[in-house]
Structures are given as structure tokens and as C-alpha cells.
UniProtKB/TrEMBL annotation:
<protein>
    <recommendedName>
        <fullName>Methyltransferase type 11 domain-containing protein</fullName>
    </recommendedName>
</protein>
<dbReference type="InterPro" id="IPR013216">
    <property type="entry name" value="Methyltransf_11"/>
</dbReference>
<feature type="domain" description="Methyltransferase type 11">
    <location>
        <begin position="151"/>
        <end position="201"/>
    </location>
</feature>
<dbReference type="Pfam" id="PF08241">
    <property type="entry name" value="Methyltransf_11"/>
</dbReference>
<dbReference type="GO" id="GO:0008757">
    <property type="term" value="F:S-adenosylmethionine-dependent methyltransferase activity"/>
</dbReference>
<dbReference type="InterPro" id="IPR029063">
    <property type="entry name" value="SAM-dependent_MTases_sf"/>
</dbReference>
Length: 291
């Protein structure tokens, strides 16, 4: 059973749990989810058919080889101790915060997926509720923007034991590269989003190399963006993904460039210059228009 941890001073929150979740590729299950969620409005038969397919995984993006990691030990072990550091530079963080300022409405309910001790949300923005997820409870407890948090390994179990259509936005910051079952996770994100809700996936060129999946390790900035686009496109119902890029020229030391270790420093993102910023955004069913 999912354990939700409230921050000090907040009362416990027990979200309605979706019991006995089945794989999102099961059409009858999606139909049952739709019928269970329907409360007041009676939709016509054609709308029911359309809704029943929403959230279904249309195809798998990754091969088995593409899902593998160099470090095959459980992720809970790798993240067993807290890392109170930022994994991207100030330029990346500033760009991400500006994107959140643009995309997230005040008063929203937000799920910060694969979070840590910081969420990079605009400091002045007020949201109704922010729920964090991650693998290290100490990091999540330290995050000042989270009202609640829970710990779960999405590579072991992709089911989010949260109510359907319960969040206005879901965030995933510099972590998508570690998902071994991204199709199922994106389908679950679709389920917990409200219609018109945004899923914002951001990343750079930095990573824990041994924990990133093969399809990501072997890629480039362009191919990684396209990979995330495919994650969205493999789930029925997401809008056409929007791509945001900010890739400054790296100021590489010519001597370092010629060094036999230069490729290692570039791989780890240790070259001088700003981190490249990539984000892919899509919405559940439709992109809302705000006045």
C-alpha cells in the first residue's frame, strides 16, 4: 500500500486509491476506469468509445536492449543515501523555472515525479497542493515546495496508486533517462492528469551513466528529444508534443578538446559553458487556452 508522508504542520492526506490496477495496455481495464470515474454527466456511446481508448499504450518504443542499465542493482540501493546537490547549472534551472512560470497556473495541483530536495518551481507562485515522488525520503522531506511525498521505484512497479484525473500538471526533471518502462509510466501519468493537464519532461546532457538506459546512453541531444517525443506519442490521448530547446555553445578548452580524457568530461557535462536545456511538453486530450 502506498504511504503518503505529509510535511510537518500539514494534516494527513489519503488520496483515493485505484485498487487492483492492471496494465494500461488492457482496453477493458481502461473502459472500467472510465466508467468508474464518471459521476454526474452521462456521455453518449461514441464519446464512451473514444474515452475508453485514451491512455492506452499503442506501441512499445524501446527494445529490451534499450532498457538495460550498466548497473543492474536495484535503484533503491543506488539512491539509498541523499544527494543534496543540483545536477544541472544555474542557467538550466533559471530556464526551467521560467517554463514552469509560463505553463503552470497558480492554484494547480502538481505531481513532481522522480523529485529530490528541490523542485525549481517559481518561488512566488502559490499552488493548491504539490505531491512529490522519489527514491530517497530524506531528499523529499527536505524539499520546501512539497506538501506530501511518497517513495516508490518506478522501474519495479509503474502503477501510481493515486486517483485518476487528480492533478493539473505532472513534472519530471532530469530523470526520464532512468526509466526502463517509460511507456507504462507515461500511461500512468496520463491517467492521473486532469483533462487539459500538462506533463513537462525536462533534461540536459548530464546523467548517472551507469544508471541511464541503453537507448539514452548511446544517444545525442537530438535523439534523446525524439525519444521522449515517442514516449508521449505511444500513449493514446496526449497532444502533439511541444519541444523547447536552449543549447548554448560550449566554451571548450582547446587543450581539453585534444586530451584523450576530453570525451569523458564532455560526457559527464563537465565542460565549461551552460548546460543544454531540453523540455518536451504535452497535454491530456487538449491544450487549454487561458485568458
Amino acid at each position: 500500500m502506498l504511504t503518503i508522508h505529509p510535511k510537518p504542520g500539514l494534516r494527513s492526506w489519503h488520496p483515493p486509491i485505484v485498487a487492483n490496477l492492471q496494465p494500461t495496455s488492457s482496453l477493458p481495464f481502461k473502459t472500467r476506469l472510465f466508467l468508474a470515474a464518471k459521476t454526474t454527466n452521462t456521455l453518449n456511446e461514441s464519446n464512451e468509445t473514444e474515452r475508453s481508448s485514451a491512455g492506452k499504450i499503442k506501441r512499445l518504443v524501446l527494445s529490451e536492449e534499450g532498457r538495460t542499465k550498466l548497473n543492474s542493482y536495484p535503484d533503491r540501493e543506488f539512491y539509498s543515501y541523499p544527494r543534496f546537490v543540483t545536477h544541472v547549472d544555474d542557467g538550466f534551472i533559471s530556464t526551467l523555472t521560467d517554463l514552469y512560470q509560463e505553463k503552470l497556473r497558480p492554484g494547480s495541483e502538481i505531481l513532481d515525479l522522480m523529485s529530490s530536495w528541490v523542485s525549481h518551481l517559481p518561488s512566488q507562485a502559490v499552488y493548491k497542493r504539490i505531491v512529490g515522488h522519489g527514491l530517497n525520503a530524506q531528499e523529499l522531506a527536505r524539499n520546501p515546495r512539497l506538501d506530501y511525498f511518497f517513495v516508490k521505484d518506478l522501474n519495479q512497479d509503474q502503477k501510481l496508486e493515486l486517483e485518476s484525473s487528480s492533478f493539473d500538471a505532472v513534472l519530471c526533471t532530469v530523470s526520464v533517462q532512468y526509466l526502463q518502462q517509460p511507456e507504462k509510466v507515461f500511461a500512468e501519468v496520463f491517467r492521473v492528469l486532469r483533462p487539459g493537464g500538462a506533463f513537462i519532461v525536462s533534461f540536459s546532457n548530464r546523467l548517472f551513466y551507469e544508471k541511464a538506459i541503453g537507448a539514452w546512453r548511446d544517444g545525442t541531444g537530438y535523439s534523446r528529444v525524439q525519444l521522449v517525443v515517442q514516449y508521449f506519442q505511444c500513449v493514446e490521448g496526449f497532444t502533439q508534443p511541444e519541444i523547447i530547446r536552449k543549447v548554448p555553445a560550449a566554451a571548450v578548452d582547446p587543450q581539453q578538446e585534444k586530451s584523450p580524457f576530453g570525451w569523458i568530461t564532455r560526457l559527464l557535462g563537465l565542460v565549461s559553458g551552460s548546460d543544454p536545456f531540453y523540455a518536451v511538453v504535452a497535454y491530456k486530450n487538449f491544450k487549454p487556452v487561458y485568458e
